[in-house]
UniProtKB/TrEMBL annotation:
It comes from the Bacteria. It holds the Pfam family NMT1_2. The lineage of its organism: Bacteria, Pseudomonadati, Thermodesulfobacteriota, Desulfuromonadia, Geobacterales. Residues 1-25 form the signal peptide. Keywords: Signal. It comes from Geobacter hydrogenophilus. This is SsuA/THI5-like domain-containing protein.
Length: 260
């Protein structure tokens, strides 16, 4: 094949990929219903809505408020909502009970008033269990991957925005992190003794979709990441499985953010 023919073929492939992604995102016949709690840790969801980041990323979202995680997860399991920002401890317990849920992003975790409490690992993990994560149902009931990447991209942008406000976030009563952070979730999983003897070792890993977060973060890095300190920090802390991120991300730093 000539060089000109190869260029045409590559152009057609890229066009088809873009059309597929656009079709996935535009296939929302109705807004994505995102459940959230009346909890400070839900601020990223609320900010992404109020600041227009969902709309800017091309995903239609309707926020649905819940008073507790149990009702929110029940609605998610029943198809009443498409995604939910709920307490990680209860989310993990329901995963252990067999609920087909997938964690795709983090949120906020309230901090105790006593700084010495951080020295007590059990107290810290108990406190972190009340923190927020964003979960969806397992495929095929979950929204398409492109829609979820856009959703998480908007949440990261909300984090950026709040971090850059006077005083930032994460320095007060609530610590925010949009990263689903498998390592932290695994510590909580073991703290609550949810693994059991007969459960496969990779059971929890199959319920945490870090690739959604990695793809969203990489998308933002491609836009302005090299000039944005907040994104650079998130990227340096991200641990993504091989091949979950585009090659561009891996070329930046094979030891940080691009691969594990």
């Amino acid at each position: 094949m000539t060089a000109a023919g190869m260029n045409i073929l590559l152009g057609v492939i890229l066009l088809l990929l873009n059309l597929t992604a656009a079709a996935d995102a535009s296939s929302q016949s109705s807004p994505l219903r995102l459940g959230y709690l009346e909890h400070p840790g839900s601020a990223l969801c609320l900010a992404a809505g109020s600041k227009g980041f969902f709309r800017a990323e091309g995903v239609r979202v309707r926020l649905v408020r819940f008073h507790d995680t149990e009702r929110g997860l029940a609605a998610l399991a029943a198809g009443g909502i498409d995604a939910g920002a709920f307490a990680v401890g209860e989310t993990l317990r329901q995963i252990a009970e067999g609920k087909e849920l997938r964690i795709i992003a983090g949120g906020g975790t309230a901090r105790g008033a006593d700084p010495l409490a951080d020295l007590d690992e059990a107290a810290t993990l108990e406190q972190e269990s009340g923190g927020i994560v964003v979960a969806v149902a397992a495929p095929p009931r979950a929204p398409g991957k492109e829609v979820l990447v856009r959703l998480v991209t908007a949440l990261i942008r909300a984090y950026q925005s709040l971090q850059k406000e006077p005083g930032g976030i994460g320095h007060g009563a609530v610590h925010f992190d949009p990263n689903p952070d498998y390592r932290r979730i695994e510590r909580l999983w073991r703290f609550h003794d949810l693994q059991g003897e007969k459960r496969p070792r990779d059971f929890l890993a199959n319920h945490v979709y870090e690739e959604i977060y990695c793809d969203a973060l990489d998308r933002l890095m491609d836009r302005t990441g090299t000039k944005d300190g907040v994104l650079q920090k998130l990227f340096s802390e991200a641990v993504c499985v091989p091949d979950c991120c585009p090659p561009v991300a891996k070329k930046r730093d094979k030891n940080k953010g691009g691969s594990r």
